[in-house]
């Protein structure tokens, strides 16, 4: 059974822990208790394949930024989460992506952009759906809006992160595979 190390990153209060706890225990955490670092394991089935998710739930507060490099190096796939009701959390996303690439010293990583709290009223919304879609296109990753509270795309965002890992692994294997040499034909006249 494959195991996938996922790291969930985003600003403070965007609902990272709520997404993870909803996935792992099916409970909704409605009070905000800032996370420093929590790790969860869950066995799931993704596209008919059993898998173990090893999820690292990280702190969004600036005072823990020194720990971020370590978290980023350990991950295989990333969920970059912002709150649709907090524009500054949305604007931080590109900074998280750059930090991941720098920490891992790569050009690309498997990731998904997650706009959380989509259950909120439109009056609370500070980031529109099309803005999330445009940012995901710039980042080169899938995008979805979620709600831990209402269980909207909750499992799906983690499943999609795993699909991105699998896709990137297959691309790397294909690139590393020896190229077949073209067959030459001789013409005898």
What's the short story on this structure?
With 189 residues, the protein is an alpha/beta fold. The protein has helices at residues 16-25, 65-74, 87-91, 93-104, 129-139, 154-176, and strands spanning 2-10, 37-46, 49-58, 77-83, 111-116, 143-146.
Please tell me about this protein's structure.
- By secondary structure, the chain is of the alpha/beta class.
- It is 38% helix and 24% strand.
- The protein has a single domain, classed as P-loop containing nucleotide triphosphate hydrolases (Rossmann fold, 3-Layer(aba) Sandwich), CATH 3.40.50.300.
- Strands 2-3-1-4-5-6 form a six-stranded mixed β-sheet, sandwiched between helices.
- Strand 5 (111-116), helix 5 (129-139) and strand 6 (143-146) form a beta-alpha-beta unit.
- The longest helix has 23 residues, at 154-176.
- The chain is elongated.
């Amino acid at each position: 059974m494959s195991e996938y190390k996922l790291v969930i990153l985003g600003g403070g209060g965007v609902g990272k822990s709520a997404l993870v706890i909803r996935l792992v225990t099916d409970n909704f955490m409605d009070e905000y208790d800032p996370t420093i670092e929590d790790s969860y394991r869950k066995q799931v089935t993704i596209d008919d394949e059993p898998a173990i998710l090893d999820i690292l739930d990280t702190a969004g507060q600036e005072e823990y930024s020194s720990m971020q490099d370590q978290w980023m190096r350990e991950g295989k796939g990333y969920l970059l989460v912002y709150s649709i009701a907090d524009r500054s959390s949305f604007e931080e996303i590109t900074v998280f992506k750059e930090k991941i690439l720098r920490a891992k010293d790569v050009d690309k990583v498997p990731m998904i952009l997650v706009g959380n709290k989509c259950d909120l009223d439109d009056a609370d919304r500070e980031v529109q759906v099309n803005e999330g879609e445009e940012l995901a296109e710039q980042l080169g990753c899938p995008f979805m809006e979620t709600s831990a509270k209402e269980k909207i795309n909750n499992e799906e965002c983690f499943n999609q992160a795993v699909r991105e890992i699998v896709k990137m692994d297959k691309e790397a294997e294909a690139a590393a595979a020896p190229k077949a040499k073209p067959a030459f034909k001789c013409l005898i006249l």
